[in-house]
Specification:
Layout lengths: L8 E10 L2 E11 L4 E5 L6 H9 L4 E8 L2 E2 L5 H7 L1 E4 L11 H6 L11 H7 L1 H5 L10 H13 L5 E5 L7 H16 L3 E5 L3 H7 L2 E6 L2 E7 L7 H8 L2
Parallel strand pairs: 3-8, 3-9, 6-7, 7-8
Antiparallel strand pairs: 1-2, 1-4, 4-5, 9-10
Length: 237
Amino acid sequence: MAEADGGLLSVKGLHAWYGESHILHGVDFEVREGEVVTLLGRNGAGKTTTLKSVMGMVQKRKGSIRFAGSETVHLPSNRVARLGIAICPEERGIFASLSVEENLLLPPAVRAGGLPNERIFELFPNLHERRASQGSKLSGGEQQMLAIGRILRTGARLLLLDEPTEGLAPVIVQQIGHTIARLKQEGFTILLVEQNFRFAATVADRHYVIERGTVVDMIPNDALDASMGKLHDYLGV
């Protein structure tokens, strides 16, 4: 499933391990600048491990991960971040005792071009209203908005979002979708892990399907309706 070179992110033959467990078995995919691309698959297929591998957050990797022309597969996560990649993990990582504004100020700006708090509050009006509230007082949707807003301050060009809609009310899912669309319009590139392929279809350009640690298909978004039968088989829904 490897594609031609030229993407902002190009992953080829990626293997990854957690301890002795071999999770990824030669993952190949590409994300072009300005795209929103999703990784779809069943639980345990290797989607989150793929994001963490791109970010340098697994102990052992081999293969090739090229970002903006630079090979990163042997770099630690702090150096990957300085190149312009940021991850928003599924568990969100909000500091419960800190306010919204304090949480936003925690990550350092690793490159020029990060959004100031004013722009983040424009994207997420709920956060502006709750800016003095502690993290423990936020709803799940507000915590997700804060987790995304926090990485926008870093100056990253590529945003890795892990299950941003999981467990959220439909109205919040819709708001997250609008925000992803706006970020794309502003030039951000997004790699998204998502169980909800119906949501993914509203925001993504292309979808890669992962099974047992390898990419088994790539579906352009405009072909998603025609591919619904095999997608149901892939995802078991």
